[in-house]
């Protein structure tokens, strides 16, 4: 985004719809101190009146929301954007069922202002941003559930291996990891569970496949 639009910096925030808090954020083109300043609740509070003037799901130019003279007197510019050399702005925010985010792309005062063509280009990218953010959120949820499952299995006093219907290992607890590492009758082959002999492996995988198929489904 920074290179595509010739921005000095870019701020992208994914928001939690239930709480309104920042789920995760990316700030590019600003040093660590400036990024920390932009990520404060005070910065979000000062930016809110401007974002409220925008239409959700529609890319906008900053000058469409506030005139240059008014902007130069605005607290958001003087306290937040001016210290990080931001002046001209291009942005958007979306509030979808699976992705809620806002993005701001800025250039310094000495640079050329953004134009309607830039807004149109950003508008075309918004659906793709929504898809990526929704996917990232789902993957993070899966990772968190997998981590919780691993923690739970580690509390079990016996070795536990969770596989899919083909015998491919999804998760295993610490005791099972030790058993597999010893390769004493139980091992992994291409990520799938393997017994001591080919015949035993075939029987084990067949048993796993049988219990993995829901009753009544062939």
Description:
The protein has 218 residues and is of the alpha+beta class. It has helices spanning 2-5, 32-38, 41-51, 62-65, 68-73, 75-81, 116-153, 174-182, 198-212; strands at residues 9-15, 22-28, 60-61, 88-95, 100-107, 161-163, 169-172, 186-189, 192-195. 46% of the residues lie in helices and 22% in strands. The protein has a five-stranded antiparallel sheet with strand order 2-1-5-4-3. It has a two-stranded antiparallel sheet with strand order 6-7. Strands 8-9 form a two-stranded antiparallel sheet. Strand 1 (9-15) and strand 2 form a beta hairpin. The radius of gyration is 26 Å and the shape is elongated. The two termini are 49 Å apart.
Report the strand count: 9
Element-level helix/strand string: HEEHHEHHHEEHEEHEEH
Strand order of the largest sheet: 2-1-5-4-3
The number of helical segments is 9
Quote the distance from N terminus to C terminus: 49 Å
Low-confidence stretches: none
Profile the largest sheet.
5 strands, antiparallel
Bulk shape: elongated
Overall radius of gyration: 26 Å
């Amino acid at each position: 985004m920074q290179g595509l639009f010739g921005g000095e910096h870019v701020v992208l925030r994914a928001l939690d719809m239930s709480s309104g808090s920042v789920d995760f954020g990316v700030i590019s083109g600003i040093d660590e101190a400036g990024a920390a300043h932009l990520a404060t609740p005070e910065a979000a509070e000062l930016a809110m009146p401007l974002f409220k003037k925008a239409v959700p799901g529609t890319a906008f130019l900053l000058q469409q929301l506030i005139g240059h003279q008014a902007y130069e007197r605005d607290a958001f510019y003087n306290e937040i954007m001016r210290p990080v050399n931001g002046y001209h702005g291009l942005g958007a925010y979306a509030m979808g069922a699976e992705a809620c985010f806002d993005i701001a792309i800025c250039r310094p005062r000495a640079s050329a202002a953004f134009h309607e063509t830039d807004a149109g280009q950003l508008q075309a990218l918004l659906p793709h941003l929504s898809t990526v953010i929704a996917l990232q959120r789902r993957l993070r949820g899966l990772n968190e559930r997998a981590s919780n499952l691993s923690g739970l299995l580690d509390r079990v006093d016996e070795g536990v291996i969770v596989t899919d219907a083909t015998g491919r290992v999804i998760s295993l607890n610490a005791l099972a990891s030790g058993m597999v590492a010893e390769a004493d009758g139980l091992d992994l082959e291409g990520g799938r569970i393997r017994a001591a002999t080919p015949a035993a492996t075939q029987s084990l995988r067949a048993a796993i496949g049988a219990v993995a198929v829901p009753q009544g489904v062939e």
